[in-house]
Design brief:
Structural class: alpha+beta
Oligomer: single chain
Order of helices and strands: HHHEEEHEEEHEHHHH
Number of strands: 7
Helix content: 40-55%
Distance between the termini: 78 Å
Number of helices: 9
Length: 265
Amino acid sequence: MSNEAVLDLVPVAERPAAPQPSAALALPQNSPAGMMLAAMAQGASLEQVEKMMDLQDRWEKREAEKAFNQAMADFKGEAVEIIKRKQVDYPSSKGGRVNYKHAELADVIDAAAPALSKHGFSWSWKAKQDRGFIEVACILKHKQGHSESVTLTGPYDDSGGKNAIQAIISAKTYLERHTLKAVCGLAEKSEDDDGAGAGNPAQTTAQDEARETELQAGREAAMKGMEALLAWWGNLDGKARGKLQRDYPGLRKAAETADTGAAGG
C-alpha cells in the first residue's frame, strides 16, 4: 500500500501538522522582503520576484546610507582634537632652520578612534604601488554597511637620506594620516603650551598647512611628468620654493619615473 493510501486512512485530526514557517521569516508586511514573500505565496513569477529582491537591496542600501549620515552627524558633535606633537627641525637651504610640528598617524588614530567606535564606524586602508608612486585609500565603514572613502596618491618620500623601504613606508604613513583625516572631516591643531613657546602658534599652523597643500600639489604635478612639475615649480614664489627646496629632488625623481613609465607604456 502506498504512503498516500496509508495517510488517507488516518483521521484528519490525527494527521501530523504541516510545517509552519520559521519565526525567522516573520518580516514586516510593508518591508520589501515581506512583500516579496507575500508575492511568492500568491504565485508571483520569477521575474517579479527578482524585481522585488532588487527593491529589497536598494531599500537596504538607502537605510544604511541614512544610518551612516546620522552617525557621522553625531560623530561631528564629539570634541575630537588632533594635537601636533611631532617636532620637525632641520637646517634650511638658506642657512636658517625649518621648525614646525605635525601630528603623527598614531596621534590621529588615538584622537579619533574612541568617537568613531562609539558611533559604529570602523576604518581600513588599501594601498598599491606603481612606478615610484603609492596610492592609499582610506575606507570608513558604518556597522550598518554603508561606506565612504578618500584616496590620495604621491611619490615615495626619499628625503632625508631614507633608503628605498623607508621611502615607501614614509609616503604610505603620510597618506594614511591625511586620508583618515579627510574621510572623517578632521584637522590638526597646535599643541597648547600656555604661551611658553616661541612665535605665534596660529601663524605657524597656517604656514604648516599651506606648505602641506603646496607639497601635495607638487606630488600631483610630478605624477603627470617633468613638464607638469616644472610648470608647478615655476608658478611658486621664492618663499614657497624655499620651504619646498628639500622636497624638490624627490619630486623631480618621481616626475622622471612618470615620464619613463609613459614612454614605456
